[in-house]
């Protein structure tokens, strides 16, 4: 490749659902609805937690961190996903793509860390209820939140620079309707070993490590709960974890599924990868507010009060 071939195409092409172009407008309706519900749901949760001092306790502060992260994920993917289905605009400039990739990855890592903090919160609440408030003080929660954000941003920060240094000379068609590092790097006509190793390292050190630690905290929670003598008490303690368990499953299953498909993708049908890609970005921001407001009496009562007024 001579210098003349450097970055033949200055754009990437995003993919909707191949073969379904004639029903894109219909597909855009549930997508728009999901976005509206995600953004409204997370905003309402933030508003209610902020305006009700009685909800200024650790569990709800972590929940508001989750809501902010989910809002970020929704907002950073709306333009490209709806662009494809509503306006059939599939082009995205390299820089816009690298920026989107940074936001998606950093916010996913932050969400993973927040879910881990929430597992820690549940463990303290069940294991040491009397010292709960003195262990999870507001300054300590703020520090935990800061660590979540810094780790996510620091790990995702090199990604745009790692993909920017490549030459892109293929037909740059990505298989999702948004940019992911593991997809973009495969479009390069250069050696992607460094990106591959770094990508693997960050997935293991965020999603891998966090999910293991969450599992561990639930093993400890179960151990604590099973040592509680009364059956009702036991169930009551576990029921405070249900919404968190749902949030964890909704977030980690598609992430791990997508990572596996991107690494060993030849044998999987392409549609599976596309659908998992949507589940990964659209479902957690949609489900978290619903799951938490259904499961939390305090939150539900406040939400109803806001809308019934």
UniProtKB/TrEMBL annotation:
Biological process according to GO: cellular response to lipid
Membrane topology: Multi-pass membrane protein
Keyword terms: Cell membrane, G-protein coupled receptor, Membrane, Olfaction, Receptor, Sensory transduction, Transducer, Transmembrane, Transmembrane helix
Transmembrane among keywords: yes
Transmembrane segments: 23-49, 61-86, 98-120, 141-163, 197-221, 242-265, 271-292
Superkingdom of this protein's organism: Eukaryota
CDD domains: 7tmA_OR51-like
Location in the cell: Cell membrane; Membrane
Entries under InterPro entries matching the protein: GPCR_Rhodpsn (IPR000276), GPCR_Rhodpsn_7TM (IPR017452), Olfact_rcpt (IPR000725), OR51/52/56-like (IPR050402)
Transmembrane helix as UniProt keyword: yes
Gene3D superfamilies the UniProt entry points to: Rhodopsin 7-helix transmembrane proteins
Stretches assigned to the G-protein coupled receptors family 1 profile domain: 41-292
Cellular component, GO annotation: plasma membrane
GO MF, one annotated term: olfactory receptor activity
Family, similarity comment: Belongs to the G-protein coupled receptor 1 family.
Name assigned to this protein: Olfactory receptor
Organism of origin: Chelydra serpentina
């Amino acid at each position: 490749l001579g210098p003349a071939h450097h970055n033949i195409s200055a754009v990437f092409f995003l993919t909707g659902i191949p073969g379904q172009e004639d029903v894109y407008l219909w597909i855009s309706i549930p997508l728009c609805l999901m976005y509206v519900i995600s953004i409204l749901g997370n905003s309402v949760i933030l508003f209610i937690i902020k305006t009700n001092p009685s909800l200024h306790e650790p569990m709800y502060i972590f929940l508001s961190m989750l809501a902010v992260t989910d809002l970020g994920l929704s907002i950073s993917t709306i333009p490209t996903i709806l662009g494809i289905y509503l306006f059939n605009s599939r082009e995205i400039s390299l820089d816009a793509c690298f920026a989107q990739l940074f936001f998606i990855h950093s916010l996913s890592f932050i969400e993973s860390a927040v879910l881990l903090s929430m597992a820690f919160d549940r463990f303290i609440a069940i294991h040491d209820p009397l010292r709960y408030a003195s262990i999870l003080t507001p300054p300590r929660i703020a520090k935990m939140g800061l660590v979540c954000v810094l780790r996510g941003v620091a790990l995702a920060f090199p990604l745009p620079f790692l993909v920017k240094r490549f030459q892109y000379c293929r037909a740059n068609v990505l298989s999702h309707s948004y940019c992911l590092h593991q997809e973009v790097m495969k479009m390069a006509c250069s050696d992607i070993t460094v990106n591959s190793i770094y990508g693997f390292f960050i997935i293991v050190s965020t999603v891998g490590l966090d999910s293991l630690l969450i599992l561990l905290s639930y093993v400890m929670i179960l151990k604590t709960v099973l040592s509680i003598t009364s059956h009702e008490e036991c169930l009551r303690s576990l029921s405070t974890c249900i919404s968190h368990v749902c949030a964890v499953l909704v977030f980690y299953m598609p992430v791990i599924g997508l990572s596996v498909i991107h690494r060993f993708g030849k044998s999987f049908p392409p549609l599976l990868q596309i659908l998992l890609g949507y589940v990964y970005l659209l479902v957690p921001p949609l489900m978290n507010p619903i799951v938490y407001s259904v499961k939390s009496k305090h939150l539900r009562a406040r939400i109803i009060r806001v809308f019934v007024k």
